């Protein structure tokens, strides 16, 4: 399903969907009984291919957002996490730009960031995930961009948003499963529940265009 933000975004998304479908058909071909390790490697390769295409293209995305009401509203909600008003507006414009480039609702991205890092762009997890959306640094080498800085706000948002969009496509719009994949806890609901709670409690701005929402 395509939730259009622009003609170009939708066309690009359809191309990615076709590529993913072809990959799935290859994996499902008769006689290819993959082990769990093979499947994990295949999925990682597919995501790497998606990012290799999506991350550079996002650099050229033109921010067309002019809804000052949204910025003012979200700035007030973000105040407990980022005290400086100018820093809040810069951050929110970045979130909206990268969310739009990945065809994601920015409120969902805000909820995910709240759970992942509490808006600390320099956060590092015990397993090495970095930045606002806690992106694993190995993805930089996987897509041939080893010099990318994941503590840079825009870079981290670009990676994180595109990864989440990939998992949404992988799960056919089932948000709970996509979030669980993002966290590496597929089959469990504790992480999606945390994100949903944050979204409803602080960032809700209308229904999300997905299913599988608790």
Automatic annotation (TrEMBL):
Which family does the entry's similarity section mention?
Answer: Belongs to the transglycosylase Slt family.
| Superkingdom of the organism of origin | Bacteria
Record's keyword terms, sorted = Signal
**Where in the numbering of this chain does the Transglycosylase SLT domain appear?**
99-189
Species of the source? Spongiibacter thalassae
Where is the secretion signal located? 1-33
Q: Which InterPro entries does the record match to this protein?
A: Lysozyme-like_dom_sf, Transglycosylase_SLT_dom_1
UniProt cross-references to Pfam families, sorted A to Z: SLT
**Name of the featured protein:** Lytic transglycosylase domain-containing protein
Quick check: keyword Zinc in the entry? no
- Taxonomic classification, please? Bacteria, Pseudomonadati, Pseudomonadota, Gammaproteobacteria, Cellvibrionales
* Record carries keyword Signal: yes
């Amino acid at each position: 399903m395509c939730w259009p933000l622009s003609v170009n975004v939708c066309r690009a998304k359809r191309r990615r969907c076709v590529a993913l479908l072809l990959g799935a058909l290859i994996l499902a071909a008769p006689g290819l009984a993959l082990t769990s390790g093979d499947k994990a490697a295949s999925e990682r390769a597919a995501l790497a291919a998606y990012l290799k295409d999506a991350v550079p293209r996002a650099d050229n995305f033109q921010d067309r957002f002019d809804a000052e009401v949204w910025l003012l509203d979200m700035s007030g909600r973000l105040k407990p996490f980022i005290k400086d008003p100018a820093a809040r507006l810069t951050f929110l414009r970045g979130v909206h730009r990268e969310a739009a480039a990945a065809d994601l609702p920015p409120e969902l991205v805000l909820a995910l960031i709240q759970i992942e890092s509490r808006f600390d762009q320099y956060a590092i997890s015990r397993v090495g995930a970095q930045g606002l959306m806690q992106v694993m640094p190995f993805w930089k080498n996987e897509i041939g961009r080893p010099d990318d800085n994941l503590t840079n706000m825009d870079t981290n948002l670009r990676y994180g948003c595109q990864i989440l969009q990939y998992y949404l496509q992988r799960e056919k719009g089932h948000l709970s499963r996509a979030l669980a994949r993002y966290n590496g806890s597929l089959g469990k609901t504790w992480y999606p529940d945390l994100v949903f709670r944050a979204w409803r409690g602080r960032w809700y701005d209308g229904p999300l265009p997905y299913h599988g929402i608790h």
